[in-house]
Amino acid sequence: MTPHLVIVPGLGGSGPGHWQRRWQEQYGAAWVEQDDPDAPTPQAWADRLHQVIAQTPGDLVLVGHSCGVLTIVHWAQLYGGHERVRGALLVAPTDPEQADMAQLAPAVCAMAPLPLSPLPFPAMVVASDNDPYVGAARAEAFAAAWEAEYVPAGEVGHINIASGHGPWPEGEILLSEALHAWTPPDIVRF
User: Fold this and answer.
1) Count of Cβ atoms closer than 10 Å to residue 45 Cβ
2) Quick check: 100 and 132 in contact, CB under 8 A?
3) If residue 74 lies in a helix (H) or strand (E), which one and from where to where?
4) Contacts (Cβ under 8 Å, ≥6 apart) of 158
5) Contacts of 59 (CB under 8 A, 6+ apart)
6) What crossing angle do the helices spanning 169-182 and 19-27 adopt, rounded to 10°?
7) Whole-model pTM?
8) Do the beta carbons of residue 159 and residue 131 sit within 8 Å?
9) Per residue in 133-158, is it b (16+ CB within 10 Å) or e — as a string?
């Protein structure tokens, strides 16, 4: 059976038209709805992710964007992962410790400090060279610390609606490649 996707949105909940919302509809993915999508905290957001994982049957692939990436990383540290999580696609991780984050997105600062331990499942970090919320070198350092594959996306901003990523065909290719790598050969994939 194809793994179920669990979409972990960032600050504000990845609004209408965002590639995460499109993937939710296209793939019938589970959605992690936070009680307050504008006020992240490591424990509360990780707890909600853990609830959704527990309620979603079968093998799972987590798909985080921005502060959703931070949620996945905190969840992995707090809960130690889950045996049904086959991998995570971590897109445009936000750096809560970035010097100007208090001006850019002050709520994100609550997610600091960011865990930098290896993740208990395979992961792929996709980051832009000109993302205002994380420098490319820092995103690459996150990937190394998490023992994740690093995929530079070029100069494509924050990989969200504002940067022109409603549909994100390159992301669907990366998702397909990740599913191929993280599931046994006899499993049907998207």
Assistant:
1) 26
2) no
3) helix 67-79
4) 66, 92, 128, 131, 132, 133
5) 1, 3, 4, 84, 85, 86, 183
6) 50
7) 0.94
8) yes
9) bbbbebbbbbbeebebbbbebeebbb
pLDDT at 189 over 50: no
Over residues 143-158, the pLDDT tens digits come to 999 999 999 988 988 8
Residue 85 is predicted with a pLDDT of 96
Q: What is the pLDDT of residues 20-56, one digit of tens each?
A: 999 999 999 999 999 999 999 999 999 999 999 999 9
Q: Which two tokens stand for residue 156?
A: 């494509």
Nearest to 162 by CA among 89, 88, 105, 103: 105
**8 A C-beta contact, residue 27 and residue 179:** no
HSE (CB half, 13 Å, CA atoms) of 169?
A: 0
Please choose, from the candidates 108, 91, 95, the residue with its C-alpha nearest in 3D space to the C-alpha of residue 151.
91
The values of phi and psi at residue 186, to 5°, are -90, 5
Amino acid at 121: F
Q: Are 96 and 108 in contact (CB under 8 A)?
A: yes
65: three-class secondary structure by DSSP:
strand
- Strand 4-8 relative to strand 60-65, pairing: parallel
Q: Can you give the pLDDT at residue 185?
A: 60
Read off the tokens for 186: 């006899």
If 0-12 CB within 10 Å is exposed, 13-18 middle and 19+ buried, where does residue 40 land? Answer: buried
